[in-house]
Write a structure and sequence with these properties.
9 helices, 5% strand, mainly alpha, 49% helix
């Protein structure tokens, strides 16, 4: 018996299950999905799709994006476990917490260090640092406090923007502009 050096983890298993779920929901056969993937320039043959759904083939980042496009969903939809409530416990590689926490992290609102911790152990400064580091500058400059779950103090908006500017300086134009 051959033992896999690095077996499929919980995130890989979630992606596998979600590809199957969305394919079935859309009533797509393997051949239909394979044709869609071929049309967008990331072919995965029928056998490859079958192996993905059985957990025998890994999905790399390019496959993840292509599968999301072909299935008409966001890559986040493929990475998030299917749960019935936001407070349901979920597991992703390196993370144990609630579905809402994982979604917040995937949406760039919640630092991974906050996942699975009670509110009293979550620090706004950690969230500010995460938001400033994880998001592109153009996105941060347009954020409002209403868009940031758990950030309810006006002074933090200016701090987030300033940290983002320092972490992601605007590109300098050369002499030719």
């Amino acid at each position: 018996m051959v033992i896999k050096k690095n077996p499929l983890g919980p995130t890989g298993d979630t992606v596998r299950a979600n590809v199957l779920r969305y394919r079935n929901r859309m009533n797509l056969g393997y051949a239909d999905l394979a044709r869609r993937l071929e049309a967008i320039g990331r072919p995965i043959p029928v056998l490859g799709l079958s192996r993905i759904e059985r957990g025998e083939r890994r999905v790399d980042v390019d496959d993840l994006i292509a599968l999301a496009v072909a299935l008409g969903v966001s890559p986040t939809s493929l990475l998030l476990p299917d749960t019935s409530t936001a407070d349901e416990s979920v597991e992703a590689t390196g993370i144990d917490g609630t579905a809402a926490d994982l979604l917040g992290w995937l949406r760039l609102y919640t630092p991974s260090a906050h996942i699975g911790k009670p509110a009293g152990e979550r620090f706004v400064r950690d969230a500010i640092r995460f938001i400033a580091d994880a998001r592109p500058r153009w996105d941060i400059e347009n954020l409002t406090l209403e868009q940031l779950p758990g950030v309810d103090h006006m002074e933090y908006a200016a701090e987030i923007t300033e940290k983002a500017r320092l972490a992601n300086p605007a590109p300098q134009l050369g002499p030719r502009g």
